[in-house]
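Bench notes, afternoon.
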Amino acid sequence: MLVMTMKRLQMNLVFLGYDTGGIDGKKGVKTKKAINDYRVSRGLGASEIADQKMIDCIRNEICEIQRTVGATVDGVAGNETIAKKAEYDKKSSSYSWDNVKHFKKSEFTCKCGCGFNNIDLNLVKILDEIREHYNKPLVITSGCRCQKHNANVGGVKGSRHVLGKASDIYVQGVSTKDLLNYTTSLVNAGKLRYTYTNNSNMTGAVHVDIV
C-alpha cells in the first residue's frame, strides 16, 4: 500500500492544475474540492476522500510525467519535477496548433462525449509526419480517453491514451501491414515509443504512442 501525506497530495494536485488553497498539509475546503475534481476527471467517482485508488492514480500520473521530463521518478511533484517540466515545456513550445498541418485538436477528443482532451502536441507532430509521408488522409479512430472510457473499451491501466500520448490510426488507401511497417521504423528511429495492431478489436487500425 502506497501512503501519501496530505502535503504531498496537495503538491501533486497543484502541479496538475488544481487549486488546493495552499500546500499546508491541511484538508480545507479548497483541498476537498480539488480532491473531488481530480477524482471526477479521472473517472474515480465524486468524493472528497483521497482513497487508495486515487493515491495510486495520482502517483502513477506523476511518475509518468517524471519519466517523460527526465526527473527522478518518485511520484511527488517537488522542485526538481517542477523545474524539469518547465524545461520540457519550453523545448516543446516551438510546436503549436498554429503549425499543425493536417489535424484539428477536436479529432483527438475522448469518444465518450465527456470532452476530455489532453493530446500531446509531440505526438501530433509525428502524426503530421506520417500524413506527409503517405500524402493521404490519416484518420484518428481513438485519441484521448478519460479513465472511465478507457476502462469501458478494455484499455490497460495507465494507458497512454489517458495521458494524451497515444492514438489509434489508419491511412486511407494504405494497408495495415504497410502502415505498421512504417510506424515500426519510427519506433526504431526513436520517434515513437511503441506501435502495434490487433485486428480482433482494432479493425485494422494501428496504435502509436510516445514516451
